[in-house]
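Notes from hallway chat w/ T.B., transcribed later so I don't forget. T.B. wanted the structure written out for a chain they're using in a teaching module, and asked if we could keep both sequence and structure tokens in one place. Agreed to drop them here.
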Amino acid sequence: MLRGVYNSVEDIDLFIGMTLEKPSDENNLAGDTFLCLIGDQFARQKWGDRYFYDLGYQKGSFDLGNI
């Protein structure tokens, strides 16, 4: 499929490769690489957001006691 577009496997863009990756489990919608990167990105966004709903008791976090 990509052989006509790319000269080498090394040239394939990560996003294109991930979208065409076959899932290792029939219940998954994405392949292992895509799932890993999606999970990593979500975790970084969650831990980087001090207002995320389950990350209370941090400096600057939302606190119902201060309303």
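Follow-up for T.B.: The chain has a mean pLDDT of 80. Might be a good example for the class.
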